[in-house]
Amino acid sequence: MVLEAAAKGVALVAGDFSGVAAFQEKSAFLIETLLKYVDDGLRDAIRALSACRAFDFEIYQLLGEKLSFVAASATFQRLVNFSFVRQMAQGVGAQYRIHDLLRRLDRSLEMVPVYRILAEHYELQGDIINWIYYNNRLD
Prior knowledge:
The protein has 139 residues and is mainly alpha-helical. It folds into two domains: 1-37, no CATH class; 39-136. Helices cover 56% and strands 6% of the residues. A two-stranded antiparallel sheet has the order 1-2. The chain is globular and about 50 Å long. It starts with a helix and ends with a helix.
């Protein structure tokens, strides 16, 4: 977040985060503060991918197509280089995961379409474990 803000010429200080009282409000505030320094396409990708247990370039492209954000290779590389994205598997099938804190903080109704897309995708792939996981998120 600090690096994205600095790239936009904004220097963040501790006081930027002190004005919110309740934890839930702080959570939403921190997410919005993080995302306000990235462009819209990257913001949409981060939000969508935070719904994923794990993702790769294929899932990123699928969500980009279905949710109408540009899923470019260069943007994907920027995204996976953020400190809140962890590489889970290396090599050709490299998989990544958004930090659990960010994933927990962004459980909103906005995620329902993402869960639906992922449930349908994994059902078509025959991946029953992931299908069950995302299908249960729809409830």
